[in-house]
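Dear colleagues,

For the upcoming journal club I promised to circulate an example of a predicted protein-ligand complex. I picked one with iron/sulfur cluster because it came up in last month's discussion. The inputs are reproduced below in full, followed by the predicted structure.
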Amino acid sequence: MTTSTSAYLAHFRVWRGDEDGGGLEDFKVEVNEGEVVLDIVHRLQATQAPDLAVRWNCKAGKCGSCSAEINGRPRLMCMTRMSVFGRDETITITPLRAFPVVRDLVTDVSFNYAKAREVPSFVPPQGLGPGDYRMQQEDVGRSQEFRKCIECFLCQDTCHVVRDHEENKGAFAGPRFLMRVAELDMHPLDAAAEAGIDRKRTAQDDHGLGYCNITKCCTEVCPEGIKITDNALIPLKERAVDRKYDPLVWLGNKILRRKP
Ligand code: SF4
Ligand code: SF4
Ligand code: FES
């Protein structure tokens, strides 16, 4: 290994353990210019802790698998430059807190896959072939923002609704999947309503939209810079409320309820 002249030793505290428990272990690890936290974790594996479990794939901020908490903040390890920390600072790396630990820095994120499966997928309009779809650029742009999601689940991890309240997990899909519902509800070609799926109602009743109190913590940690709260959750809340207080919907519900 070549050591550059600007290399220094940094103090790391890394959580080691499994579902039965664990704790923080201290390490001194070499840091070189231009490195990111994932480089240091790899060096730690190579030199001092060969059995340290860590999940990663791309090292380019695109696969969403190296999510962890660095000094308590949910971040991608591959996109967190060492230069953002002082040389004397102790850097603490812990697994995502909202999900069960598998081992060391690896958590079981299957909660998110279960929630993804609960969102009905895009319903293509009847009688239109894929090549015949036409959308306004404004509508395309709106979907494109949400489609930048790399499924790192940092927003899911940071949301206080589930972070400290395991009991809410059944009723709350989390920002990533409420954003998915919003995307589909705003999609001009989605024919879910014709197929009997009321996305606004499911957002409230099945995915727990009412639990979100628009604190924007999810937006703050999103590595793709998606404005989850402003562009997805707040508009979805507005649409769901509009529907609830729409006099025609109210009248329709009354008439339907009167039927024997
Ligand atoms: S804005 Fe809503 S979804 Fe996002 S972190 Fe806050 S409560 Fe959770
Ligand atoms: S919305 Fe952002 S923070 Fe949430 S999973 Fe997608 S990329 Fe990650
Ligand atoms: S390793 Fe792929 S996002 Fe970090």
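Two points we might discuss: The pocket of iron/sulfur cluster (ligand 2) is lined by residues 149-155, 176, 221-224, 226, 228 (CB under 6 Å). The first strand starts at residue 8 and ends at 18.

See you all on Thursday,
B. R.
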